[in-house]
Amino acid sequence: MLQYTILLFGPASALIGADRVVVQCSRSYTCDELKAQIVKANPSLETHLQVGRLAVNQGFVAGDASIEPDAEIALITMVSGG
Amino acid sequence: MLQYTILLFGPASALIGADRVVVQCSRSYTCDELKAQIVKANPSLETHLQVGRLAVNQGFVAGDASIEPDAEIALITMVSGG
Amino acid sequence: MSVQVRLTDGPLSEMVDMPTTHGSGARIVFDGIVRPMEDGATIEGLDYEAYRPMAEQQLAIIGNDLVEKHGLLMMDIEHSYGFVPNFACSFRLVIDSKHRKEGLKAMDEFIDRLKVDVPIWKRAQ
Amino acid sequence: MSVQVRLTDGPLSEMVDMPTTHGSGARIVFDGIVRPMEDGATIEGLDYEAYRPMAEQQLAIIGNDLVEKHGLLMMDIEHSYGFVPNFACSFRLVIDSKHRKEGLKAMDEFIDRLKVDVPIWKRAQ
User: C78-101: per-residue pLDDT in tens?
Assistant: First the structure.
């Protein structure tokens, strides 16, 4: 069994009440597949995943990019710096 | 006999070697008429008067505005501040 | 053609003396200031949460992109994380360019991209 | 909604501490710097000749127009006359606005109008 850990920040983290979520899987996912799995395990994050993007090892990646389970993964929802 | 004094600055002043020119006249001129008279008396200023504007009492005026001979008149050619 | 990035805990201090880059004809400084109102409610300030390593990287990516695109001479980027009280500065962008046009353009584009691609979130306090 | 104008003999000094206007979310500062090259030739600096009373009036007219047009909070305008050596500042514009967009727009428009309507001429030395 593989496992992805996804870091949460800002409103997404506040909504869940945690700074990360974990997704179990039997194979490697693409970015889009992983987003779908996160929603499945955490339905309340759906809106955030619709507008948000996943960052892998601190950079944005394409939807069809394959993600290694040991990568540093973060959900980057609507940012508001400045 | 009336008389207009027109202040010169920058390249126009350098060209003439003076900080003002004087135009004699028998009646009041409009701005456009005065420009024509300045060129007549100082042909070398023609280019500067084509691109330049006259300021009257430190403000730009329309071409058909009548100018009093005792006004403070200045030829504002291509400026280059900043 | 240097780009510097700093994330700073709390409000940014007054701008330090930073000589303009040789050959620069324009320096433009943008300070983002915390306003005492947010959505009509009075606040004490803003709490900035940053995904710090990625925020630094993204700021540098945007800075380098724009330096290259506009032929800028220097860009210095500083953003707060943590609490920044009302009236204090939470973001400062300094751009040196040969002429003003490209500097102003780059500043506008930088802030547009900051508000999309840099993982920093603010919350009213 | 204040507009200040100053003409200064020689180079402008470092910016003095000027608290941002209450309610401002953005301060933008533009410094025009004398470059050591003019039309390919090395120079010592620029000599600015100003038709001073009119230059002050024109700067104020442009400032007030843009403050009204863009709903700015504050504009501070300073320009040199006389000699300004290479690398020194000859023009500074400070704008406080609620948001950045209108401040950047106003800064761009100000400099466009400065280069048309303000009777100041520079000459390489």
Answer: 999 999 999 999 999 999 999 999
Q: Which of D25, D35, D108 sits opposite C25 (nearest CB)?
A: D35
Out of C20, C26, C31, closest to residue D87 by CB: C20
Question: Which amino acid, residue D106?
Answer: A
pLDDT, mean of residues B33-49: 94
| Helix, strand or coil, per DSSP, at residue A56 | strand
D114 pLDDT exceeds 90? yes
63-82 in B: which are within 8 Å (CB) of D? Answer: 74, 76-77, 79-82
Tell which residue, A36, A38, A27, has the closest CA to residue A67: A27
**Are A55 and C55 inside 8 Å of each other by CB?**
no
The answer to whether B7 contacts chain D (CB < 8 Å) is: yes
pLDDT tens, position by position, C99-124: 999 999 999 999 999 999 999 999 99
Task: Give the gap in angstroms from C-alpha A28 to the nearest C-alpha of chain C.
Answer: 23
Contact D91 B81 (CB under 8 A): yes
Q: Do D54 and B81 touch (CB under 8 A)?
A: no
Predicted TM-score (pTM) above 0.80: yes
> Which domains does chain A carry?
2-76 (3.10.20.30)
Q: State the complex-level ipTM.
A: 0.90
B15 touches chain D (CB under 8 A): no
What pLDDT does A82 receive? 85
Of B10, B9, B34, B33, nearest to B22 by C-alpha is B34
Chain A to chain C Cβ contacts (< 8 Å) = 56
CATH 3.20.20.100 fits D2-11+23-124, yes or no: no
Query: What string of H, E and C letters represents the secondary structure of chain D?
Result: CEEEEEEEECCECCCCCCCCCCCCCEEEEEEEECCCEECCEECCEEEEEECHHHHHHHHHHHHHHHHHHHCCCEEEEEEEEEEEECCCEEEEEEEEECCHHHHHHHHHHHHHHHHHHCCEEEEEC
Chain-centre distance for alpha carbon D30: 7
